[in-house]
């Protein structure tokens, strides 16, 4: 797989919100896939509205066999996988959308968006390698989106809590299942800093393991019975 795609994977992993996803792909997709147009289409989890649609999501891809294939199978497709060139021309006569390819963005088992690519007239058609690369990108985007949309665990309590705000931030990431390396990456600190912080947190809470710590903080955060 091309190094440019690995760079995109790393960029996707580091985005802080859904709006940054497009920017993470900006410098990669056109060059890697040789496309003149592309679009990232996401449905907002709350308002069900479009977010940051730069190019072609609604054009040539909705209400046709390519879009239906992706929606039904949750798998990427290009027009030649489903249609003859003549049939595709009847559906989309635009010269700048001579060839199109789209892949699914999945969250919680449902389709929540698509990543769409288009090549202009005279460009080669998309092939199996393109489909494989798009599938890999969609997997990374879907995984990141699931993380961004997950409801974070927060530890708040009116009871005295011995942990500092930074330590509580680390505890919340531990509760989400992140490793020391992942926590370090999110908080821009070293893995050793995370390790040392966890030791202090264990000592303050009188626990010896991550699961014990999370359980203890949940008990502190839970409201007292009425």
Description:
The protein has 226 residues and is of the alpha+beta class. It has eleven helices and five strands, in the order αααββαβααββααααα. The chain has a five-stranded antiparallel beta sheet with strand order 2-1-5-4-3, with helices on both faces. A hairpin with a 6-residue loop joins strand 1 and strand 2 (50-51). Helix 1 runs parallel beside helix 7 (128-149) and helix 8 packs across helix 11 (210-221). The longest helix has 22 residues, at 128-149. The chain is elongated, with a radius of gyration of 22 Å. The model is unreliable at 45-60 (pLDDT under 50).
Lay out the secondary structure.
Layout: H1 3-13, H2 19-26, H3 29-33, E1 37-43, E2 50-51, H4 65-73, E3 77-78, H5 79-82, H6 85-91, E4 99-107, E5 110-119, H7 128-149, H8 165-175, H9 180-187, H10 191-205, H11 210-221
Antiparallel strand pairs: 1-2, 1-5, 3-4, 4-5
